[in-house]
Amino acid sequence: MSPPRLRPLPIVFALVCAFLLSACSLGVNSSKSTPTIASTPTTIATTQGPTTAASSTTRSTAVVTAAPPTSAASSATTTTASASAGSTPATGLISAPVSASGQPLSVAQINQKVRPAVVQVTNNQKAQGRFGASNGVAIPAGVGTGFIFDKRGYILTNNHVVEGANSLTVATTDNKTYDAKIIGAYPQGDLAVIQITGTGDLPTVALGDSSKLQVGDPLVAIGNALALQGGPTVTSGVVSALNRVAQEPSSGSTQGTFLVDLIQTDAAINPGNSGGPLLNAAGQVVGINTLGSTQAQGINFSISINSAKPVADALIAGQPVPRAFVGVTTGSLNPQQDAQLKLPANIGVGIASVQSGTPAATAGLKADDIIIKFDGQDVHGEEGFVGLLLNHKPGDTVTFTILRNGQQQDVKVTLGQAPKQ
Protein backbone atom coordinates (compact mmCIF):
# COMPACT_ATOMS: atom_id res chain seq x y z
CA MET A 1 0.00 0.00 0.00
CA SER A 2 1.41 3.35 -0.98
CA PRO A 3 1.80 5.73 1.93
CA PRO A 4 -0.68 8.61 1.72
CA ARG A 5 0.71 12.03 0.91
CA LEU A 6 0.71 14.41 3.80
CA ARG A 7 -0.34 17.97 3.10
CA PRO A 8 1.82 20.45 5.06
CA LEU A 9 -0.03 23.14 6.94
CA PRO A 10 0.53 26.53 5.24
CA ILE A 11 2.99 28.62 7.22
CA VAL A 12 0.79 31.72 7.43
CA PHE A 13 -2.20 29.73 8.64
CA ALA A 14 -0.02 27.97 11.19
CA LEU A 15 1.25 31.27 12.58
CA VAL A 16 -2.28 32.65 12.86
CA CYS A 17 -3.42 29.52 14.69
CA ALA A 18 -0.46 29.73 17.03
CA PHE A 19 -1.27 33.32 17.83
CA LEU A 20 -4.95 32.67 18.46
CA LEU A 21 -4.60 29.54 20.55
CA SER A 22 -3.43 30.28 24.09
CA ALA A 23 -3.78 26.76 25.51
CA CYS A 24 -1.93 23.67 24.39
CA SER A 25 -4.20 21.04 22.84
CA LEU A 26 -3.66 17.52 21.56
CA GLY A 27 -1.68 17.82 18.36
CA VAL A 28 -3.67 15.46 16.21
CA ASN A 29 -5.31 16.19 12.88
CA SER A 30 -7.90 16.70 14.73
CA SER A 31 -39.48 -16.28 -3.19
CA LYS A 32 -41.29 -18.10 -3.04
CA SER A 33 -38.46 -19.88 -4.78
CA THR A 34 -35.34 -19.21 -2.83
CA PRO A 35 -32.33 -18.01 -4.82
CA THR A 36 -29.23 -20.15 -4.62
CA ILE A 37 -26.30 -18.58 -2.83
CA ALA A 38 -23.23 -19.41 -4.82
CA SER A 39 -20.92 -16.51 -4.26
CA THR A 40 -18.22 -16.07 -1.67
CA PRO A 41 -18.40 -13.32 0.94
CA THR A 42 -17.56 -9.75 0.07
CA THR A 43 -14.11 -8.83 1.30
CA ILE A 44 -13.82 -5.51 3.05
CA ALA A 45 -10.27 -5.17 4.11
CA THR A 46 -6.64 -6.24 3.99
CA THR A 47 -3.74 -6.58 6.29
CA GLN A 48 -1.24 -3.94 6.89
CA GLY A 49 1.98 -4.67 7.54
CA PRO A 50 -1.61 -4.55 7.20
CA THR A 51 -5.06 -4.06 5.59
CA THR A 52 -7.82 -3.25 3.33
CA ALA A 53 -11.14 -1.67 2.67
CA ALA A 54 -13.94 -2.18 0.22
CA SER A 55 -16.46 0.07 -1.43
CA SER A 56 -20.12 -0.32 -0.57
CA THR A 57 -21.04 -1.43 -4.06
CA THR A 58 -18.17 -3.50 -5.40
CA ARG A 59 -16.26 -6.42 -4.05
CA SER A 60 -12.74 -5.17 -3.47
CA THR A 61 -9.88 -6.81 -1.63
CA ALA A 62 -6.80 -4.76 -0.86
CA VAL A 63 -3.87 -6.90 0.08
CA VAL A 64 -1.03 -5.08 1.77
CA THR A 65 2.25 -6.85 2.24
CA ALA A 66 4.39 -6.50 5.31
CA ALA A 67 7.16 -4.05 5.75
CA PRO A 68 10.74 -4.66 4.66
CA PRO A 69 13.21 -6.59 6.75
CA THR A 70 15.15 -4.80 9.44
CA SER A 71 18.66 -5.31 8.29
CA ALA A 72 18.15 -3.29 5.15
CA ALA A 73 14.95 -1.62 4.11
CA SER A 74 14.17 -4.06 1.30
CA SER A 75 10.56 -5.12 0.85
CA ALA A 76 9.03 -8.28 2.28
CA THR A 77 5.71 -9.72 3.28
CA THR A 78 4.36 -9.91 6.82
CA THR A 79 2.93 -13.16 8.04
CA THR A 80 0.97 -14.94 10.76
CA ALA A 81 1.73 -17.80 13.16
CA SER A 82 0.43 -20.54 15.39
CA ALA A 83 2.23 -21.36 18.58
CA SER A 84 2.23 -22.96 21.96
CA ALA A 85 0.83 -21.27 25.03
CA GLY A 86 2.45 -19.97 28.17
CA SER A 87 1.25 -19.90 31.73
CA THR A 88 0.53 -16.72 33.67
CA PRO A 89 -2.30 -14.23 33.25
CA ALA A 90 -1.66 -10.83 31.68
CA THR A 91 -2.08 -7.54 33.42
CA GLY A 92 -5.58 -6.10 33.69
CA LEU A 93 -6.84 -3.00 31.94
CA ILE A 94 -5.14 0.03 33.36
CA SER A 95 -7.12 3.21 33.91
CA ALA A 96 -5.08 6.38 34.21
CA PRO A 97 -5.90 10.10 34.17
CA VAL A 98 -5.25 11.90 30.91
CA SER A 99 -2.58 13.96 32.60
CA ALA A 100 -1.84 15.42 35.99
CA SER A 101 -3.88 18.50 35.10
CA GLY A 102 -6.68 16.51 33.47
CA GLN A 103 -5.79 17.95 30.04
CA PRO A 104 -5.07 15.78 27.00
CA LEU A 105 -1.45 15.07 26.16
CA SER A 106 0.13 16.43 23.00
CA VAL A 107 1.28 14.07 20.26
CA ALA A 108 4.87 14.72 21.31
CA GLN A 109 4.07 13.87 24.94
CA ILE A 110 2.26 10.68 23.92
CA ASN A 111 5.20 9.63 21.78
CA GLN A 112 7.67 10.34 24.58
CA LYS A 113 5.55 8.36 27.04
CA VAL A 114 4.87 5.31 24.88
CA ARG A 115 7.77 5.05 22.44
CA PRO A 116 10.14 3.08 24.75
CA ALA A 117 7.59 0.22 24.94
CA VAL A 118 7.03 0.04 21.15
CA VAL A 119 9.16 -2.61 19.47
CA GLN A 120 10.04 -3.79 16.00
CA VAL A 121 9.28 -7.47 15.37
CA THR A 122 11.26 -9.21 12.64
CA ASN A 123 9.96 -12.51 11.29
CA ASN A 124 12.92 -14.73 10.37
CA GLN A 125 12.37 -17.67 8.04
CA LYS A 126 14.78 -20.19 6.62
CA ALA A 127 15.93 -19.36 3.14
CA GLN A 128 15.22 -21.70 0.27
CA GLY A 129 18.20 -23.12 -1.57
CA ARG A 130 18.24 -24.78 -4.96
CA PHE A 131 15.26 -26.98 -5.81
CA GLY A 132 13.24 -25.52 -2.93
CA ALA A 133 15.21 -27.14 -0.14
CA SER A 134 15.91 -25.10 2.98
CA ASN A 135 19.54 -24.19 3.42
CA GLY A 136 19.04 -23.70 7.15
CA VAL A 137 19.87 -19.99 7.12
CA ALA A 138 17.20 -17.79 8.73
CA ILE A 139 16.74 -14.44 7.03
CA PRO A 140 14.26 -11.59 7.68
CA ALA A 141 10.99 -12.32 5.85
CA GLY A 142 8.95 -9.41 7.19
CA VAL A 143 8.83 -6.66 9.77
CA GLY A 144 5.98 -5.51 11.96
CA THR A 145 5.39 -3.79 15.28
CA GLY A 146 4.38 -4.77 18.80
CA PHE A 147 4.21 -3.22 22.25
CA ILE A 148 5.29 -4.42 25.69
CA PHE A 149 2.27 -4.49 27.98
CA ASP A 150 3.62 -6.51 30.92
CA LYS A 151 6.85 -6.33 32.93
CA ARG A 152 7.42 -10.02 32.26
CA GLY A 153 8.19 -9.10 28.66
CA TYR A 154 4.84 -9.96 27.08
CA ILE A 155 4.31 -8.23 23.74
CA LEU A 156 1.02 -7.95 21.88
CA THR A 157 1.12 -7.93 18.07
CA ASN A 158 -0.74 -9.24 15.02
CA ASN A 159 -0.77 -12.92 14.18
CA HIS A 160 0.19 -12.17 10.57
CA VAL A 161 3.36 -10.48 11.81
CA VAL A 162 4.70 -13.71 13.33
CA GLU A 163 3.09 -16.37 11.14
CA GLY A 164 5.48 -18.91 9.69
CA ALA A 165 8.47 -17.64 11.64
CA ASN A 166 11.38 -19.93 12.39
CA SER A 167 12.58 -17.32 14.87
CA LEU A 168 11.66 -13.81 15.96
CA THR A 169 13.89 -10.83 16.68
CA VAL A 170 12.60 -7.91 18.73
CA ALA A 171 14.36 -4.54 18.63
CA THR A 172 13.61 -1.77 21.12
CA THR A 173 13.99 1.96 20.54
CA ASP A 174 17.15 2.05 22.72
CA ASN A 175 18.85 -0.19 20.14
CA LYS A 176 18.69 -3.42 22.15
CA THR A 177 17.73 -6.68 20.43
CA TYR A 178 16.17 -9.80 21.91
CA ASP A 179 15.21 -13.25 20.76
CA ALA A 180 11.47 -13.67 21.24
CA LYS A 181 9.29 -16.75 21.62
CA ILE A 182 5.66 -17.10 20.62
CA ILE A 183 3.48 -17.62 23.69
CA GLY A 184 0.26 -18.07 21.72
CA ALA A 185 -1.37 -17.07 18.46
CA TYR A 186 -4.99 -16.56 17.46
CA PRO A 187 -5.25 -16.45 13.65
CA GLN A 188 -9.05 -16.02 13.75
CA GLY A 189 -8.63 -12.67 15.48
CA ASP A 190 -5.21 -11.81 13.98
CA LEU A 191 -3.59 -11.53 17.41
CA ALA A 192 -0.49 -13.03 18.96
CA VAL A 193 1.44 -12.74 22.21
CA ILE A 194 5.22 -13.10 22.16
CA GLN A 195 7.73 -12.72 24.97
CA ILE A 196 11.22 -11.42 25.50
CA THR A 197 13.33 -11.80 28.62
CA GLY A 198 15.02 -8.58 29.64
CA THR A 199 17.89 -8.13 32.03
CA GLY A 200 16.51 -4.84 33.33
CA ASP A 201 13.25 -3.08 34.01
CA LEU A 202 11.35 -3.34 30.74
CA PRO A 203 9.21 -0.33 29.79
CA THR A 204 5.50 -1.00 29.36
CA VAL A 205 2.52 0.84 27.94
CA ALA A 206 -0.81 1.21 29.74
CA LEU A 207 -3.91 -0.43 28.27
CA GLY A 208 -6.99 1.78 28.06
CA ASP A 209 -10.72 1.17 27.68
CA SER A 210 -11.83 1.25 24.05
CA SER A 211 -15.51 1.23 25.07
CA LYS A 212 -15.10 4.84 26.16
CA LEU A 213 -14.10 6.03 22.68
CA GLN A 214 -16.40 8.34 20.77
CA VAL A 215 -16.36 9.22 17.10
CA GLY A 216 -14.16 12.29 16.70
CA ASP A 217 -11.83 11.51 19.62
CA PRO A 218 -8.14 12.16 18.84
CA LEU A 219 -5.84 9.18 18.28
CA VAL A 220 -2.13 8.56 17.73
CA ALA A 221 -0.57 5.55 15.96
CA ILE A 222 3.04 4.47 16.44
CA GLY A 223 4.71 1.78 14.35
CA ASN A 224 7.56 0.75 12.12
CA ALA A 225 6.10 2.01 8.87
CA LEU A 226 8.07 0.58 5.92
CA ALA A 227 10.72 -0.49 8.46
CA LEU A 228 12.36 2.89 8.02
CA GLN A 229 15.64 3.22 9.84
CA GLY A 230 15.74 5.56 12.80
CA GLY A 231 12.85 4.23 14.85
CA PRO A 232 9.05 4.17 14.77
CA THR A 233 6.85 6.54 12.78
CA VAL A 234 4.19 8.60 14.58
CA THR A 235 0.91 9.57 12.90
CA SER A 236 -2.26 11.13 14.26
CA GLY A 237 -5.96 11.35 13.48
CA VAL A 238 -9.37 10.76 14.99
CA VAL A 239 -11.86 7.97 15.62
CA SER A 240 -13.68 7.85 12.27
CA ALA A 241 -16.13 5.08 13.24
CA LEU A 242 -16.58 2.33 15.81
CA ASN A 243 -17.70 -1.32 15.79
CA ARG A 244 -16.61 -1.93 12.21
CA VAL A 245 -16.42 -5.45 10.74
CA ALA A 246 -13.80 -6.18 8.08
CA GLN A 247 -12.47 -9.25 6.31
CA GLU A 248 -8.76 -9.83 6.03
CA PRO A 249 -7.28 -10.54 2.59
CA SER A 250 -7.46 -14.10 1.33
CA SER A 251 -4.37 -16.29 1.20
CA GLY A 252 -4.46 -18.52 -1.84
CA SER A 253 -7.73 -20.45 -1.73
CA THR A 254 -8.26 -19.66 1.96
CA GLN A 255 -10.75 -16.88 2.65
CA GLY A 256 -9.59 -14.18 5.03
CA THR A 257 -11.07 -14.21 8.51
CA PHE A 258 -13.59 -11.62 9.66
CA LEU A 259 -12.45 -9.21 12.34
CA VAL A 260 -15.07 -7.51 14.50
CA ASP A 261 -15.27 -4.58 16.91
CA LEU A 262 -12.75 -2.62 14.86
CA ILE A 263 -11.89 1.03 15.34
CA GLN A 264 -11.78 2.96 12.08
CA THR A 265 -9.32 5.85 12.04
CA ASP A 266 -7.78 8.28 9.59
CA ALA A 267 -4.41 8.09 11.37
CA ALA A 268 -2.05 6.76 8.73
CA ILE A 269 -1.35 3.03 8.97
CA ASN A 270 1.18 1.64 6.51
CA PRO A 271 3.00 -1.65 5.88
CA GLY A 272 5.10 -2.32 8.97
CA ASN A 273 2.57 -0.69 11.33
CA SER A 274 0.89 -4.06 11.90
CA GLY A 275 0.67 -4.89 15.57
CA GLY A 276 1.50 -1.38 16.74
CA PRO A 277 -0.50 0.60 19.30
CA LEU A 278 -3.35 3.00 18.60
CA LEU A 279 -3.40 5.45 21.51
CA ASN A 280 -5.93 7.78 23.09
CA ALA A 281 -5.24 11.27 24.43
CA ALA A 282 -3.94 9.76 27.69
CA GLY A 283 -1.31 7.72 25.88
CA GLN A 284 -3.14 4.46 26.62
CA VAL A 285 -3.50 1.70 24.05
CA VAL A 286 -7.06 1.49 22.74
CA GLY A 287 -6.35 -0.53 19.58
CA ILE A 288 -3.89 -2.74 17.70
CA ASN A 289 -3.26 -1.41 14.20
CA THR A 290 -4.08 -4.11 11.68
CA LEU A 291 -5.64 -3.05 8.39
CA GLY A 292 -5.32 -0.16 5.96
CA SER A 293 -7.36 0.58 2.87
CA THR A 294 -5.80 0.38 -0.57
CA GLN A 295 -9.04 1.64 -2.11
CA ALA A 296 -9.11 5.03 -0.41
CA GLN A 297 -7.07 7.32 1.79
CA GLY A 298 -7.61 7.71 5.50
CA ILE A 299 -9.56 4.47 6.05
CA ASN A 300 -7.65 2.26 8.45
CA PHE A 301 -8.67 -0.29 11.07
CA SER A 302 -7.44 -1.33 14.51
CA ILE A 303 -8.56 -4.21 16.72
CA SER A 304 -10.09 -2.73 19.87
CA ILE A 305 -8.09 -3.38 23.01
CA ASN A 306 -11.22 -4.56 24.84
CA SER A 307 -11.49 -7.36 22.25
CA ALA A 308 -7.78 -8.13 22.39
CA LYS A 309 -7.41 -8.26 26.17
CA PRO A 310 -9.35 -11.52 26.80
CA VAL A 311 -7.54 -13.08 23.84
CA ALA A 312 -4.18 -12.18 25.36
CA ASP A 313 -5.27 -13.53 28.75
CA ALA A 314 -6.33 -16.84 27.20
CA LEU A 315 -3.13 -17.20 25.14
CA ILE A 316 -0.89 -16.54 28.14
CA ALA A 317 -2.88 -18.95 30.30
CA GLY A 318 -2.71 -21.62 27.59
CA GLN A 319 -6.49 -21.70 27.22
CA PRO A 320 -8.57 -21.75 24.01
CA VAL A 321 -9.95 -18.38 22.98
CA PRO A 322 -13.78 -18.47 23.14
CA ARG A 323 -15.21 -17.87 19.65
CA ALA A 324 -18.79 -18.67 18.67
CA PHE A 325 -19.30 -21.03 15.74
CA VAL A 326 -22.30 -22.08 13.66
CA GLY A 327 -20.90 -24.15 10.79
CA VAL A 328 -22.33 -22.49 7.68
CA THR A 329 -20.87 -20.86 4.61
CA THR A 330 -22.75 -17.68 3.84
CA GLY A 331 -23.05 -15.00 1.21
CA SER A 332 -24.71 -11.59 1.14
CA LEU A 333 -27.80 -11.09 -1.00
CA ASN A 334 -27.71 -8.82 -4.04
CA PRO A 335 -30.45 -6.23 -4.72
CA GLN A 336 -32.21 -8.56 -7.19
CA GLN A 337 -32.43 -11.32 -4.58
CA ASP A 338 -33.71 -8.86 -1.96
CA ALA A 339 -36.41 -7.73 -4.40
CA GLN A 340 -37.34 -11.31 -5.30
CA LEU A 341 -37.68 -12.20 -1.63
CA LYS A 342 -39.50 -8.92 -0.88
CA LEU A 343 -36.87 -7.98 1.69
CA PRO A 344 -35.58 -4.48 2.44
CA ALA A 345 -32.20 -3.65 0.92
CA ASN A 346 -29.21 -5.12 2.74
CA ILE A 347 -31.31 -7.44 4.90
CA GLY A 348 -30.55 -11.13 5.11
CA VAL A 349 -27.68 -13.48 4.44
CA GLY A 350 -27.94 -16.68 2.43
CA ILE A 351 -26.60 -20.07 3.48
CA ALA A 352 -24.49 -21.59 0.71
CA SER A 353 -23.60 -24.78 2.60
CA VAL A 354 -23.93 -26.44 6.01
CA GLN A 355 -21.06 -28.43 7.47
CA SER A 356 -22.02 -31.83 8.85
CA GLY A 357 -21.79 -32.36 12.59
CA THR A 358 -21.93 -28.63 13.35
CA PRO A 359 -24.46 -26.63 15.40
CA ALA A 360 -26.13 -25.54 12.15
CA ALA A 361 -26.60 -29.12 10.99
CA THR A 362 -27.90 -30.20 14.40
CA ALA A 363 -30.41 -27.35 14.39
CA GLY A 364 -31.66 -28.32 10.93
CA LEU A 365 -30.41 -25.34 8.91
CA LYS A 366 -30.12 -26.04 5.20
CA ALA A 367 -28.39 -24.66 2.14
CA ASP A 368 -30.45 -21.87 0.47
CA ASP A 369 -32.04 -20.83 3.77
CA ILE A 370 -32.01 -17.06 4.19
CA ILE A 371 -31.20 -15.79 7.68
CA ILE A 372 -33.04 -12.50 8.17
CA LYS A 373 -32.88 -12.08 11.95
CA PHE A 374 -30.43 -13.10 14.67
CA ASP A 375 -32.11 -13.18 18.08
CA GLY A 376 -34.62 -10.62 16.87
CA GLN A 377 -32.07 -8.27 15.32
CA ASP A 378 -32.04 -7.64 11.58
CA VAL A 379 -29.11 -9.24 9.78
CA HIS A 380 -27.45 -6.65 7.54
CA GLY A 381 -25.50 -8.78 5.09
CA GLU A 382 -22.64 -11.07 5.86
CA GLU A 383 -20.66 -8.54 7.86
CA GLY A 384 -23.67 -7.90 10.06
CA PHE A 385 -24.21 -11.63 10.56
CA VAL A 386 -20.60 -12.19 11.62
CA GLY A 387 -20.72 -9.20 13.95
CA LEU A 388 -23.84 -10.51 15.69
CA LEU A 389 -22.43 -14.04 15.90
CA LEU A 390 -19.12 -13.01 17.44
CA ASN A 391 -20.84 -10.90 20.07
CA HIS A 392 -21.99 -14.23 21.55
CA LYS A 393 -19.99 -17.00 23.16
CA PRO A 394 -19.92 -20.77 22.71
CA GLY A 395 -22.85 -22.43 24.48
CA ASP A 396 -25.29 -19.57 23.89
CA THR A 397 -28.63 -20.60 22.37
CA VAL A 398 -29.88 -18.10 19.80
CA THR A 399 -32.87 -17.87 17.49
CA PHE A 400 -32.36 -17.58 13.74
CA THR A 401 -35.36 -16.27 11.84
CA ILE A 402 -35.07 -17.72 8.35
CA LEU A 403 -36.87 -17.80 5.03
CA ARG A 404 -37.19 -21.28 3.53
CA ASN A 405 -39.09 -21.69 0.27
CA GLY A 406 -40.68 -18.32 0.91
CA GLN A 407 -41.94 -19.27 4.37
CA GLN A 408 -40.63 -17.61 7.54
CA GLN A 409 -39.75 -19.73 10.57
CA ASP A 410 -37.62 -19.62 13.73
CA VAL A 411 -34.78 -22.06 14.36
CA LYS A 412 -33.01 -22.46 17.72
CA VAL A 413 -29.24 -22.90 17.41
CA THR A 414 -26.82 -23.64 20.25
CA LEU A 415 -23.50 -22.09 19.27
CA GLY A 416 -20.32 -24.14 19.41
CA GLN A 417 -16.62 -23.36 19.84
CA ALA A 418 -14.85 -22.47 16.61
CA PRO A 419 -12.24 -25.08 15.63
CA LYS A 420 -8.59 -24.09 15.63
CA GLN A 421 -7.29 -22.88 12.30
Task: Give an overview of the whole structure.
- The protein has 421 residues and is α+β, with helices and mostly antiparallel strands.
- The chain folds into two domains: 43-321, Thrombin, subunit H, CATH 2.40.10.120; 324-417, Pdz3 Domain (Roll), CATH 2.30.42.10.
- The chain contains seven helices and 20 strands.
- It has helices at residues 11-20, 107-114, 159-162, 305-317, 335-340, 359-363, 381-389, and strands at residues 118-128, 134-148, 154-157, 167-171, 177-186, 191-195, 218-223, 233-247, 258-265, 277-279, 285-292, 300-304, 324-325, 328-332, 349-354, 370-374, 377-378, 397-404, 407-414, 416-417.
- Strands 1-2-3-6-5-4 form a six-stranded antiparallel β-barrel. The chain has a six-stranded antiparallel beta barrel with strand order 7-8-9-12-11-10. Strands 14, 15, 16, 17, 18 and 19 form a six-stranded antiparallel sheet that branches.
- The protein is globular, with a radius of gyration of 22 Å.
Q: Could you say how many structural domains there are in total?
A: 2
Number of helices: 7
* Low-pLDDT segments: 1-100
* Rg over CA atoms: 22 Å
Strand order of the biggest β-sheet: 1-2-3-6-5-4
CA(first)-CA(last) distance: 27 Å
- What's the order of the H and E elements? HHEEEHEEEEEEEEEHEEHEHEEHEEE
CATH architecture of the largest domain: Beta Barrel
Measured by DSSP, the beta-strand proportion falls in 25-35%
CATH topology of the largest domain: Thrombin, subunit H
> Helix amount, in percent?
10-25%
Q: What overall form do the CA principal axes indicate?
A: globular
What is the highest CATH level, the class of the largest domain? Mainly Beta
Structural class: alpha+beta
Q: How many strand segments?
A: 20
The largest pleated sheet is described as: 6 strands, antiparallel, barrel
What does the average pLDDT come to? Answer: 76
